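Help: read this over?
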Amino acid sequence: MNLPAAVQVEGRVLTVRRSGHYHVLSIAVPGIADVAKPGQFVTIAVGGENSSMLLRRAFSIASVDDRSAYGGVIEIVVSGDGPGTKWLVNRHRDDHLNLVGPLGKPYPLPKNPVHAILIGGGYGAANLPWLAKALLQRGCRIETILGAATDQKVYGQLETRRVGGLVTITTDDGSIGTQGRVTDVLPAAFDRTNAAVVYACGPMAMLQAITEMAARYHAVVQAAVEESMACGIGVCMTCVLPITDTSGVTRLVRSCTEGPVFDGASVRWNDVGKLPKDIYGAAGMSGH
C-alpha cells in the first residue's frame, strides 16, 4: 500500500467539546485531513514552548472533513488524564498545535463486500464510525460493539448509531447496555452475521481476547494496538511489538510504522512488553 508521506503542520484549534469522560478536539490541519485514512494517527507536541514534556503524544484520527472551509479538519478524542493531555484539552479556539501526520498504516479494507464486526474499547472506538462509512461504501454489512468500564467511558454511541447497523454496548458495571465485556456478546454477533472480519481497537487484553475468540469462528481480526508511540516515525523504538511473520519467524516490529493495525493472529499477545527467547537475532538463533 502506497501512502502519502507524513507532513508537519501548524494546526489551529476550532473547538474543544466534552463527550462523557473524554474531550473531542476539532483541529484545522491542511495537508493531513485530505489524505488520512481510518486507522492512521497524528502526533502532537504538548505543553507549549517552555514545557519539559519533550515527547509528542499520539492520537488516532477519529474523523476528517477534507471539504471544510478551513482547508481540512480532523477530530481527535482525548482522555485528559495525564499532564500532557490535560494541557491539550485546555486549549481554546484559535490556539495553535504542532502536528505530524498522517502516520501509520490504516485498516485494510476488503476487496469484496463482507459482513464485518467493529469493536471499540473506551475511546478506542473513536475512529470506528469513520471506518464504518468506508466499509459501507464498499457494500459491506456491519455491526458494532462498544465496551467500557462505565457509561461515561463508552465513546461514540450517537455517531455509531447514525452510521447504521446494529450497535451493542457493554459496560463492566452495567451502567448502560449489557453488563460484562465485549467478548461476552461477541459469540452472538458471530452467530448472527457469520462475519469474515473483525476490526478492533482498544486495550491489549481486549484485543487478545477478541483474536482468540475470532479464531474459533475462522474470522480475521484487524487490531489497532494501543502502544506508546513517542516519535511516531520509527526512531525511538518505544512501541515495538512481537510479531510472527508468514515464515513463522518472530520479530520485533515498530507499531508506529508497521502498524498500528496488525493481523491479530500474528501478534504474540502473551509476549507483549517482553523479549521472547526465540526472537530473530537472539543468541542461539540462526539467520532466516
